[in-house]
Each structure stands twice: as C-alpha cells, then as structure tokens.
Hints:
By secondary structure, this protein is an alpha+beta fold. It has 3 helices and 13 strands.
Amino acid sequence: MxxxxxxxxxxxxxxxFTINEDQVVVKGPKGTLTRTVPQGIKVTLxxxxxxxARPDDTGKFRAxxxxxxxxxxxxVVGVSEGFIKExxxxxxxxxxxxxxxxxxxxxGFSHPVEFSAVPGIEWQIEGSRLRxxxxxxxxxxxxxxxxxxxxxxxxYKGKGIRYFGEVVRRKAGKAGxxxxx
Length: 181
C-alpha cells in the first residue's frame, strides 16, 4: 500500500485542475503545466481534492502510483507558489550576468559559458548568488544541475558553482607531505 500515493492533493482556490482522457492540465497564477498520466492510473477530482488510484497491486502500478501523485502535487505547488533553486558562485573573478535573454557565466575558462533562455524560467542575479525561478520543478532542478556542472566546487580551495548552503568537504593539499620531510 503506497503511503504517498494515497494522500489527497488539496487544491488552492487560485488553481484550476482539468482531467482529460490521459492528460492532466493545471492552471494557476504562475502558469500552466500539462502531464500525461500513465495508463491504468486513475486520477479523480472531487470538491477541490485530487486523488490518485491504481487498478491492482502489481509492482509496476505500485511504483507509478506514488510517482504520479508526487508529480501532480508538484504541479499544483508550481503553478500556485513556484519553485526556486539558488546557486552560489565562489572564486576570484567568477561571476554571472544577464545578457539580454541569455545567462553568461565567467568561471575561470578562457571563454564565457552561455545559457539560452528557457521558456517558463527566470534568472535573478544578486552579487555572487544566482536564483533560478519557475513553475516546473523538474525544469528548475535540471537547469540548476546543468549550471552547477559547468564548474562544480573543487575540494582544495572550494572554488566553483554550488547550491546555496551546500557544504564542500575540503582537502588538505600538499602541506601534509612537506611537513613529513
């Protein structure tokens, strides 16, 4: 029995939830999101409460039950409140700037790294912090991971792009060997 899949999703007043044959459309103040529901999973809406049910207890449907409920709940939160991922740029000369609709990173390479605008995603830059804001949790997280992958934090000086609040384990470097001689 899925504990997550059985939880009901309560809809805020500002959210409009529509169920088609195999698609769910969620509209709210932050945008519109659409997702295809897996075959066999049943989504019902009654009195501003969405429930997800599965036809039987086979492994496939047990896995899809909780997943579908979580994805739908994230869609509801996304169109009503939105999602934010914060990145921190650490290093001398490392910086980010917006150039029109592009994000330009200067992180120690001989060339700047550019990211094109993604529909539904907004960038905010405040000093060394970069905020990625959007209604689709999956898209926000994926873009944050791609930006972090450009220059992940290194363990010796801690330079690079990291999630805000991420702890980077530091290594000692060569000082330990020089003291042994």
